[in-house]
Amino acid sequence: MAKRGRPKIEIDLDQVEKLAGLFCTYEEIAAFLGVAINTMKSRKDFLTVYKRGYENGKCSLRRLQAKKAMEGNTTMLIWLGKQYLGQRDRLEQNEDGLNEAIDRLNDMVDLINTPDD
Fold first, then answer.
1. Is 0.85 surpassed by the pTM of this model?
2. Is 96 domain-assigned?
3. For residues 46 and 40, is the Cβ–Cβ distance under 8 A?
4. Residue 6 resides in a domain
5. Could you tell me if residue 100 is inside a domain?
């Protein structure tokens, strides 16, 4: 007996995993592979491979960030400290500092409102 219906669309799961590792969206992957989004999403193997690729991409990004921090990248050290160590910037708030900031803002407003000669 002959099979009925459309033939099953082949999805290159290796490509899906690589593209998911680059944080491509379902829409982008569907366009790249030339298949409908609903076709991809209905396939359990697609969802499994997509999630694996996406998570591997996050691990790779985290590894690169850690490497930059360990190389002494100050910005990355600060950002990772805030994300994982609960560190934060503390702003000292006192009346003198607030008055100074208000004076600077007023000076800037005056400059903006001063007509050009």
1. no
2. no
3. yes
4. no
5. no
